[in-house]
Amino acid sequence: MADSSRQPGGEASAHQANVLGALALAIADQTEQAVVAATGQSVTAAAALSALSEFLDRPTLDQIRRVLGLTPSGAVRLIDRLAEAGLVTRGPGADGRTRSVILTDAGRRAAEAGAAARLIYLRDSLATLTVAERETLDHLLGRVIAAVVDRKDGGAWICRQCDLTGCGRSSGRCPAMNAATAKYAQPT
Hints:
This protein has 188 residues and is mostly helical. Helices cover 62% and strands 5% of the residues. The protein folds into two domains: 25-128, Orthogonal Bundle (Arc Repressor Mutant, subunit A), CATH 1.10.10; 129-188, no CATH class. Helix 2 crosses helix 5 (105-126) and helix 3 (61-68) packs across helix 4.
């Protein structure tokens, strides 16, 4: 094992990386628990409900699969479970060959409950910071998420459970969207 003091950034960098990792796991675990409790669904099902509520408009199973990072058979099983629970229905797709997935009223309520539980937990996590500290954190998190997006290749979408209004997406303030736009922009 390499001596962390000999690596770029040394011991301070190793400490910060470990604290960030612990924080990421703790927040992910606690947020997942809050969302699962609020929706009564698995983490993946709650993410599907969130994506359907926030940005997927009558998606195909393949679109849902790509957003959640699932296999085709995993997406079918997930949508079957959500349909059995009365949270989604299947309808005709845009091209006549595919089927689309639509949230029911119960599915929309579950998605909203999950989003509210997520927001409450995350806001409470920031409650000990001053306004100035939150502004600094916002700037730093934007830089970190941009680096994560830049390195990410495949798998589930980072924003699959985001509140797309809360992130500032429409006003160009979402660091994940901005980083993805920069990463995938076509050269002119």
